[in-house]
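Known limitations

Files may contain more than one protein. Parsers should not assume a single record per file. Below, a two-record file is shown to illustrate correct handling: read the sequence, read the token line, then continue until end of file.
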Amino acid sequence: MDNTNKASILVAEDLPDDVLILKHAFAKAGINAPLHFVTDGQEAVEYLKGEQMFADRSSYPLPALLLLDLNMPRLNGFDVLKWVRRQAGLCRLPIVVFTSSDQPRDVNRAYELGANSYLVKPQALGNLQQIAHHLGDYWLRVNVCPDVEPEDTAVRGS
């Protein structure tokens, strides 16, 4: 089953250079899924809630996958993980932590909070392209993604 043409990926990454490199790596890997970028954890939550500048779901659809950095301003990746896993509907969203930390305490904490996968950012662009290919191939082509629904913030709050 190939979801790459309809599924989108939300990337929470605060470093502009990493955003450019990720865009390039996904393009070179042939991943056709639309990429949507947010620059911090608070924007990731607003995107997933469909609030603020992300209210138009035709322009900012719910993603099939969240690629999440841990070290971001406002809300860090751990806070985003905790928030997502508490939301009915959104709690099923596949989340791949993609960070520079290879610290066992960060790896363990991410999994304890509900991460589906943990990847350490490679230094070489070629390796990043290979990771982008594997991410798209597994999470969007091979894996059967769950239904993800927007949170009714009027009922549950944040």
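...continuing to the second record:
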Amino acid sequence: MTRIDTGVTATNGYGAEKTAPHVSVVIPCLDEARAIVACVTEARAAMDAADLDGEVIVVDNGSTDGSGDLARTAGAIVVSEPRRGYGAAYLAGFEAARGTYVVMGDADGSYDFSELTRFVEALDAGADFVIGSRMRGRIHPGAMSWLHRYVGNPVLNGLLNALHGAGVSDSHCGMRAFHRDDLERLELRSTGMELASEQVIRSVQLGLVIRELPIDYRPRIGRSKLSPLADGMRHVRLLVGSTPNPSRRPLPESRS
């Protein structure tokens, strides 16, 4: 069961509260003590500089290095999710989020949270789902292995585009933003890394307006939790098993 360690009562069923912030930054975290404080601080500073009312939610996914306590000290709301997995952590964070917009990003320092205002601006301008593109941005030296950059990511991204017509250049980029009120219709269920593909596929199926933004991708701090073969196979099963063209339900009236 997800535990929210904060004085603020989070809503279930993705319901809004009267005092809901404009932006919820959701960061999954498993043993990222070396980077989590900088990530939380960077996100809070970006929102403060842009005068955005926001919250930072860190989902502690079973850390043993004190990451949760460090995030809380840095000013984050900490959600404890015992079920291991990238997707499981995000689903817990989405449930706790109260903002009109949700911004996603990793806890390892690889994404520049000072860029989150660009994602918010794109949503304000009419996008429904904004995804960063490392491929069209700047990949810093040492940030991505040759195998991931020139084999793994292009193959999975090409398969997703071919089967589902997403037309994106970097479907596995972890820095994203979307309208929280789309969560119920997205019906995300994946508990592993394949959540990244599921979110893109479901957004295409629902006819959401998708926009890409070139971003910087920095070397991660600390040890990677990726299992390339296992994670890749789960992505492939999801891509092949998802229905390409289901009926599309209309957008909420306020955004039609």
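Parsers that stop after the first record will miss the second one. For reference, the second record is described as follows. The radius of gyration is 17 Å.
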